[in-house]
Specification:
This protein is mainly alpha-helical. The chain is built from six helices and two strands. It has a domain at 89-168. The protein starts with a helix and ends with a helix.
């Protein structure tokens, strides 16, 4: 014969186990639904992003973050940008609105190294071969990756040359 206090004690454990099982099932269902929704949202976002790039427009959320866009949408995002958006901003003063994309594309092309000394210093710059002030443009062919030291040397040499021309 089983004592009644022992039976009632085990009934409480069964109820607790059932409650834990129900919570786990609900949690699993909610997680599954949210992952499906997230997957659908990402697919739609990618389609919207590609359509925007094809029309020559970069969504503001991705304008300053080419590395994140490439990580999220793949390297094809950079190829789409260079085919459809880049040509629209080659000419003009100062840095174009898609400067971060240009910088990312040039550094990727140059392998993350200085094209002058092949250094991989932590701070790399993108330099205009022909300065915009001298009629150069922002085309990828006119841009190159330089380390801080080489960039300073080149600009110092340009300033010295300009002073010589001014005194002649």
């Amino acid at each position: 014969m089983v004592h009644s206090s022992v039976v009632s004690k085990h009934e409480g454990d069964v109820g607790l186990l059932l409650l834990i099982l129900v919570v786990a099932i609900i949690s699993s269902v909610v997680s599954s639904i949210s992952s499906r929704i997230d997957r659908r949202r990402r697919i739609k976002e990618k389609i919207d992003f590609e359509a925007a790039l094809r029309s020559g427009y970069i969504p503001p959320a991705w304008l300053r973050a080419p590395e994140r866009a490439a990580a999220r949408f793949g390297e094809g995002a950079i190829d789409l940008w260079s085919a459809f958006v880049e040509p629209k901003h080659r000419f003009g003063g100062r840095h174009p609105v898609d400067w971060n994309w240009r910088r990312y594309a040039v550094m990727r092309r140059d392998g993350g190294r200085c094209t002058f000394c092949t250094s991989t210093r932590p701070r790399l710059h993108v330099h205009h071969r022909v300065p915009v002030a001298s009629g150069g443009c922002h085309a990828l062919g006119n841009l190159r990756t330089l380390c801080t030291v080489c960039h300073k040397r080149i600009h110092r040499a340009i300033r010295i040359e300009d002073k010589r021309e001014a005194t002649s």
